[in-house]
């Protein structure tokens, strides 16, 4: 973990992901489809896109939303020896390209159970469904519902979101702060928003304006801690 990440986690842990705090960019169609699934729409969905585009955020947000509806919902990051619940009504599987042979069998069985009970399977991965390194019968099932590409925000979109978020908190960011965070912090928007929140907390706590020299000084001090 970098000093910047450590600083942010100490000052402002990232908020719980929800559909409302997901920043859309060009992904309006994706969010509409997910909301429709919660309302009884498509029951098999697959999201794909690069790291940092918000796949995990949306899967975790959907599980929370399903739980708020009283459904038995669970989120899993796919890994060897994955153990899936047999009574789930909403199952979200992240990083499906990482499934090993046993995991593929487990997900295949889960798919059949969910399909038979009119439950929801939401999966996500870095590759298009057709390119997933899965056995053919599972790959075809993952691709049998709605398949949607999730697009990462552009640099300009991230700057606009972060600037607006800072202004909404009454935080005036000195020149260079966003450049510094974008260059040295994880590129996913959730982490960047948490970084801005951390700066706000630090500014209030120290009663000092957040400037680039102060940010560098703080990170240097954080990095020197044992």
- Output the number of helix runs: 9
Low-pLDDT segments, ≥5 res: none
Distance between the termini: 13 Å
CATH A-level architecture of the largest domain: 3-Layer(aba) Sandwich
* Helix-strand topology string: HHEHEEHEHEHHHH
| Count of β-strands | 5
Helix content: 40-55%
Q: What composes the largest sheet?
A: 5 strands, parallel
Q: Give the mean pLDDT.
A: 87
The CATH topology of the largest domain comes to Rossmann fold
| Class from secondary-structure proportions | alpha/beta
Oligomeric description of these chains: single chain
General form = elongated
Radius of gyration: 20 Å
Number of domains: 2
Report the portion of residues in β strands: 5-15%
- For the largest beta sheet, what order do the strands appear in spatially? 2-3-4-1-5
CATH superfamily of the largest domain: P-loop containing nucleotide triphosphate hydrolases
Look at the structure and give the CATH class of the largest domain: Alpha Beta
Give a short synopsis of this structure.
The chain is α/β, with parallel strands linked by helices. 48% of the residues lie in helices and 11% in strands. The chain starts with a helix and ends with a helix.
């Amino acid at each position: 973990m970098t000093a910047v990440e450590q600083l942010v986690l100490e000052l402002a842990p990232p908020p719980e992901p929800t559909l409302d705090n997901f920043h859309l960019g060009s992904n309006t169609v994706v969010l509409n489809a997910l909301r429709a699934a919660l309302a009884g729409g498509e029951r098999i969905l697959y999201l794909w896109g690069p790291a940092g585009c918000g796949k995990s955020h949306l899967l975790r947000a959907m599980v929370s939303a399903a739980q708020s509806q009283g459904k038995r919902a669970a989120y899993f990051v796919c890994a060897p020896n994955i153990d899936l619940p047999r009574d789930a009504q909403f199952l979200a599987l992240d990083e499906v390209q990482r499934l090993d042979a046993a995991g593929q069998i487990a997900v295949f069985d889960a798919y059949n159970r969910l399909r038979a009970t009119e439950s929801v399977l939401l999966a996500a991965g870095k590759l298009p469904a057709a390119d997933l390194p899965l056995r053919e019968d599972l790959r075809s099932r993952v691709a049998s519902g709605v398949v949607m590409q999730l697009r990462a925000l552009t640099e300009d979109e991230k700057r606009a979101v972060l600037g607006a978020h800072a202004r909404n908190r009454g935080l005036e960011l000195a020149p260079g702060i966003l450049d510094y965070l974008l260059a040295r912090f994880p590129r996913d928007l959730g982490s960047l928003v948490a970084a801005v929140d951390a700066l706000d907390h630090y500014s209030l706590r120290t009663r000092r304006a957040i400037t680039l020299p102060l940010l560098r000084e703080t990170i240097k001090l954080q990095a020197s801690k044992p």
